[in-house]
Amino acid sequence: MKIKKFVAALAAAAMAVSMVAVNAFAATVTLDSEYPGGWQASKGIPKAEFEAIGGDVKVVLTVETKEPLVGEHNHLAKPMNMCVSWDAITANLKSDTAIAKGDGFIVFADGQTSLEFVVPESVWSEFKGYVDADGNEDESAGLYFQVNDVIIKSADLSAADAQGDFMIISEDEAKSVMEGTLTRDAAPAAPVEDAPAADTAPTTSATTGNVPAAVMVSVMAVAGAAAIASKKRK
């Protein structure tokens, strides 16, 4: 009995250590408290935060969509390895829920408050900082976003599970996403036709004249039940 208690305690301790380890490999990074301006760069998620977690990293952004000064909603953010180039790196990221245009800008619905995606290790390992005249790289390496009508407030980082690709849409479809009328699961399901009513009447095969096996089994079962009942009466 004492051995069983010891094993149970050991298992509980191992689980507790495991939970602490999982929590240790997660981080929250504060980014912008105010809007940096239309088509400007957000603050970055440092490369060191990705290195601390290791492997593919899940990023969950906390965001706030901003009312445009003029015109229609245009809530967009483009992930980039900014110190190397302002080109979009969206095609190299993964997400089962996010939506992006062909130019790499992620599209947000008006009022959306979060966004989830995965940065593969092969991507974040290429983040680089600015290099000075002597060839020394500073600590600016990380993931940045070019934003418009979106404030990226913070990012939660943790070890990632596998995810699929971004849903890629057109400019016209992007407007529907921002209005909340188009989502990844908004495609209508294919209509289901009513199945014909089952014909339960016994039928005879047109080619053999035999009664179907299912009907024969049913008849045999009824006959057997009747025979049992007859014996009991006797």
Describe the protein in words.
The protein is α+β, with helices and mostly antiparallel strands. It is 27% helix and 23% strand. It contains five helices and eleven strands; from the N terminus they run H-E-E-E-H-E-E-E-E-E-H-E-E-E-H-H. The protein has helices spanning 2-24, 47-53, 121-124, 171-179, 213-233, and strands at residues 26-30, 40-41, 45-46, 57-65, 76-80, 99-101, 106-107, 114-119, 142-148, 150-159, 167-169.
Q: SSE order, as H and E?
A: HEEEHEEEEEHEEEHH
Measured between the Cα atoms of the first and last residue, the distance is: 59 Å
Q: How big a fraction of the residues is strand?
A: 15-25%
Label the structural class. alpha+beta
Indicate the percent of residues in helices: 25-40%
Average pLDDT for all residues: 81
Biggest sheet layout: 5 strands, antiparallel
Quick one: overall form? globular
If you compute it from the alpha carbons, what radius of gyration comes out, rounded to the nearest whole angstrom?
31 Å
Number of helical segments? 5
* Poorly predicted parts: 16-23, 188-220, 230-234
